Amino acid sequence: MEFRQLLYFLTVLQTGSFTQAAKKLNMAQPPLSRQIKNLEAILGVQLLTRSANGVTPTAAGKLLATYAQQLLELRDQADHQIRFAGTAVSGRLRLGLISSAVGLLPPKLASLTQYYPDIQLDIQEGNTYQLLEKLTARNLDAAIVRTPFSTEHIQSKALRIERIVAVVPNKYAKDLKATLDVAALEPLPLIIYRRFSDVFEQTFFAKNIRPFIACYCDDARTAVQWANAKLGVALVPESVATAYLGTGMQIHPINYQPWRTQIQLIWPDTVIASPILEKFIEIFDN
């Protein structure tokens, strides 16, 4: 199986036609068809189904398409990194970033690009688990994510520790102290960011309190937006609360040490760091 065969295969899928794929690849159709047949022969499976409506992948073809895209991206990345290994710091850095960590980057990146202007940044946003998946697949060089998470074969550097806070509509804020203990949450309708639900529920169980969970959601920003709509009290990291707080709202820190979350820079420990990645990691030492 050759890289060019994978490229041909993906191009046929993208265009849905051997004719259009051949035009895009600047080659004749018969050689393209032969290469796809050779690929099917090598793998021992049919990859494409041809019909009057075009070309569609079989189940095996869909699976190959996923791997083919990753293999081609890895080939390009390997070529790039090897060419620049041991040379001046230049080239591309593929960085994953959670939305709540955006504010950490501009000053650091400004100092990096000031001294190394040839660096090209490819920043991809997503949640922690999406970025971990991309990092594991080698589609990112590094990522800035938030605990808790569990994975193997990574190195990490702690960037910031944040406390969990309650985003409280004024109508629920009467008689609340500026800083709350966990027990003070019991009479409040809570909006829970699902990533922290196990931590919260274990704490409630251990302290023998049973607050009403009004809503679960999969994004801390959404939790704050629901609180802004006066639907309940959101429990989220402090930076998210501060960034998305609406009018008529208050932020009350939770005075409970285990309710902490850490923003971390992570990168694979199974590959040699490129000069670009090494410089990027170094800027967070200061």
Automatic annotation (TrEMBL):
SUPFAM superfamilies: Periplasmic binding protein-like II (SSF53850), Winged helix' DNA-binding domain (SSF46785)
Organism: Agrilactobacillus yilanensis
InterPro entries, A to Z: LysR_HTH_N, LysR_subst-bd, WH-like_DNA-bd_sf, WH_DNA-bd_sf
The protein's name in its UniProt record: LysR family transcriptional regulator
Coiled-coil ranges from the UniProt annotation: none
HTH lysR-type domain location: 1-58
Keyword RNA-binding included in the entry's annotation: no
Swiss-Prot/TrEMBL keywords: DNA-binding, Transcription, Transcription regulation
Family listed: Belongs to the LysR transcriptional regulatory family.
Highest taxon of source: Bacteria
Pfam families on file: HTH_1 (PF00126), LysR_substrate (PF03466)
